[in-house]
Amino acid sequence: RWVLSLECKGSRNFLSALRRAVEVDFKDKDKHKSQGLYLLTTGIPDQETHTISAYVAEVCRGFDLQLHVCLLSVVKGTDSRIIPARYASPQETARAFKEIVQAAHGRFHWFGEAGIFESDDISSIISEMEKAKNYSQKCAFLVESLKQRS
Is residue 146 part of a domain? Predict the structure, then answer.
């Protein structure tokens, strides 16, 4: 709800923005059982990953907060005037955010114009489908072996 009142201004300091969101804008955090914070980004944070991960782990331990990251890979050659504060390849960027998300017990989603590269939600669904398929095969084998005994 507070996002609707924000205006585009400030710096590119990722950790500062995260601190503001967690320490200032979650004023009513004690009134809610759990809260989620979604980061929509196209590049690597300005600060080192281990620094952000340590901060996020500490903050999330204090109350039920999960940080979820949606990483959009921008296609080279597009007219993107966004110049990152520090450079990292898409794979390095994804690794960094996956580490941060793990510290926050959140979910990571990475997508681009070509589709979904990686998603914790989709991975969970695929895992559940594999378990269901294996269970179904075991049940079918059991039914077949019972039919043969009869």
Answer: no
> Average pLDDT, stretch 70-88?
66
Identify whether 126 is part of a domain: no
Total of domains in the chain = 1
Supply the pTM of this predicted model.
0.71
Residue 133 covered by a domain: no
Determine, yes or no, domain membership for 134.
no
Average pLDDT of the residues of the chain? 82
Q: Side by side, which strands form the sheet with 65-73?
A: 35-41, 65-73, 108-112, 115-119
Q: Could you tell me whether strands 35-41 and 115-119 are parallel, antiparallel, or unpaired per DSSP bridges?
A: unpaired
Domain, as residue range, for 52: 2-119
**Integer angstrom CA distances of residue 42 from 4, 9, 45, 64, 139:** 21, 17, 10, 26, 46
Encoding tokens for residue 5?
Answer: 């009142």
* CB count in 10 Å sphere of residue 64: 13
